[in-house]
Sequence to fold (155 residues):
Amino acid sequence: MRNKEIQINDIWNDKKKDDLKKIIVSHSSKQSKEQVLKNELLSIQYKLEDYIQNENDTEILKILDFVKMYLKVLNLSKKRLATYFDMKDSNLHKYLSGERKLNAKLVLKLSTFSHTKPEQWYKVQLKNEMMELNKEKANTKEYEKYDYRHLVDSI
Fold:
């Protein structure tokens, strides 16, 4: 008797995909609003973690992008969040958009608000800065004029 090799289609095909989709839809329709909200918030947290860990990203996601995801799911405005954080909306926007560097107080507010680790917000900021640095490295010729040897007298 010959052993038949199992093919990928034996395990995973369109019918099985459709059946799985039906099961997921059926299960999700039975969830409470609170459970759906928890799942959506968890999804954002996974996106945040994935963004931090993925070294192959080419698109920069700002802290503002992640905060907007939370605000959308929670049906809140950025202005309301700023008030809640005891800040002006314009000031909060400067931090979230990267115009200003995050500080510990804001990071702890974001962390408590989103139920995430505070370090994650700093890691997003650092990752974005490193991506910016790597892009700028392509222009190293422009920076050669800043070599200290051009500034000090010949030795």
Remarks:
- The first helix runs from residue 8 to 11.
- The mean pLDDT is 90.
